[in-house]
Design brief:
This protein has 202 residues and is an alpha+beta fold. The chain contains 6 helices and 9 strands. The radius of gyration is 18 Å and the shape is globular. Bound molecules: thymidine-5'-triphosphate (TTP).
Length: 202
């Protein structure tokens, strides 16, 4: 099972996880990460407003350079109560994040924007993730690895910190960074991709 497209496809992301998930479609794509700094979350009234703006900014910035292509941008944040947890800057911040997440339920929101010429589609997925109580020694050992520092909330559900996760409600791939099933639905509905070898476009 493989999809086809009549357009060049560009993934506006440096994330190896997003690249791997997009490869599931079997469509060739280029990777052109956005170079613009992400906005300051404090400028936004809601976490959702922030993550939607980040995804749109990444896709729009790259689409301005590639008007011929379907450009996909995405952004993932961890939300605990009123607080937005982005990628931790250092061990102290990563430790603080994981101490807060320990034994509690948080939300992961991933927003995706698809731009093609003048058309733009944005959607998001929210996932509830519950952590086990984390012993301090686990947090200390994990934050000594490189793993938390390129991930929102200082953990990766797909890596060794998946051991922290007691329960998840929602799309696992949205936590990893790209809700590929929902994205496929949107790309098919927009007529951007279709199943290879099928007599009907679907
Ligand atoms: C919560 C969680 C996040 N993440 C990752 C997904 C994203 O790559 C990252 C959040 O940072 P983002 O700013 O969304 O993305 P990025 O900087 O990695 O890549 P780009 O902006 O170029 O697209 O956290 C995981 O890999 N696993 C997880 O369990």
């Amino acid at each position: 099972m493989k999809f086809k497209t009549d357009f060049p496809v560009v993934l506006a992301s440096q994330s190896p996880r997003r690249q791997e998930l997009l490869r599931m479609l079997g469509v060739d794509f280029e990777v052109i990460p956005s170079t613009k700094d992400e906005p300051d979350p404090q400028q936004f009234q809601t976490a959702l407003g922030y993550v939607l703006a980040c995804a749109a900014q990444k896709a729009q910035e790259v689409a301005a350079r590639r008007t011929d292509a379907i450009v996909i941008g995405s952004d993932t944040i961890v939300v605990l109560g009123d607080e937005v947890l982005l990628k931790p800057k250092n061990k102290e911040q990563a430790t603080g994040y994981l101490q807060k997440l320990s034994g509690r339920t948080h939300q992961v929101i991933t927003a995706v924007t698809v731009v093609q010429d003048t058309s733009e589609h944005t959607f998001y997925e929210t996932v509830k993730v519950t952590f086990f109580d984390l012993p301090e020694a686990w947090i200390d050992a994990y934050t000594d690895t490189e793993d938390p520092y390129d991930k929102a909330g200082a953990y990766g559900i797909q890596t060794l910190s998946g051991l922290f996760v007691k329960e998840i409600q929602g799309d696992y791939n949205a936590v990893v960074g790209l809700p590929i099933a929902a994205l496929t639905q949107k790309l098919v509905s927009a007529g951007f991709i279709y199943l290879e070898g099928s007599s009907v476009r679907c």
